[in-house]
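I have been asked to look over a protein record a colleague put together. The record follows directly below this note.
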Amino acid sequence: MEVRALLGAPEMEEKKKLPLKREFSAGGVCFKKEKGKIFIVIYKPEGRDAWQLPKGWIDKGETSQEAAVREVKEEGGVEGKIIQKIDTIKYFFNWEGE
């Protein structure tokens, strides 16, 4: 008996290759300290049940820093300034069958 065939060895499975689409976004954690408390800007996008930090795509000709400041203003309604980079986060997903 061929055990590998029964278990579906990777070389025997037909793999569907999806096209790769790279997109880049930027956002920020905008906060202020007031009377011993810290307030963080979050917003709830229309049609969603979750609150999130402001973020969005980087426009052509825009740096990631410029995009982060713009997105905080557009989605959070406040003007901020970058004091330091937090991290780089990578997401991989399929988007509606694309």
